[in-house]
SRPBCC family protein
Amino acid sequence: MPQIQYTVQIATPVERVWAFVEHLPNWAPLMVGYQKVVEVNDRQSIWTLKGDVGMLTREVDLQADITVWEPLKRVEFTLTGLTEKLSGSGSFTLEPVTGDDAGEAGTPAVESSAAAAPIAPAPRRKRRRLREAFARFQARMMRRMMKRADGADESVRAAAATIASAAADRSGEGSRLTFELHVQPGGPMAPMLELLMAPMLEPAVSDLTTGIRAALEAG
């Protein structure tokens, strides 16, 4: 069964990310191959997606049913093929990041069982050392700027204060969003379809999560 997990950190609080994700029209068009989505009720929707499978272009209708709904934390769903024999499941997981971790916002980490080898994130200790070194460098630069601003005109002092404030804000509250997707083709062609689908799922999942991040950080 092709299985993909993709994680991004977003420089936006959990509440705002959830407010965006909980409404399908906000992010459905970001899905690769999106044609349309029909919301049947608050737990069920019908998706029409289009994509290339091997040398063929196929359009498929999928029914998504929400099975777990934990506000500000997690959504789980199942997938049922309406025009193709396939099934699957997936989830969105959301958690807050603050302090040092929030400084990593915008850096994706990938875990994929469909890829030949997952991309391993840098060791946590090494990332922390790099952040601390960069923070010390920023602090030195801020002190120099503020020192030079002493005695300068008001516009120079205001500019120095604005830059210092922006640097501090980058270590504020953020979010970590993880999207996981499993898809299982059915029928006699299932083994071949699995091989064809595996390389398609990773860009689909990564494009969706990075698209959500871009939409939120741009807003």
Q: What stands out?
A: The first helix runs from residue 14 to 21. The chain has two domains: 3-120+171-218, 124-169. Strands lie at 3-10, 34-41, 44-53, 56-70, 74-81, 86-97, 109-112, 174-185. The mean pLDDT is 75.
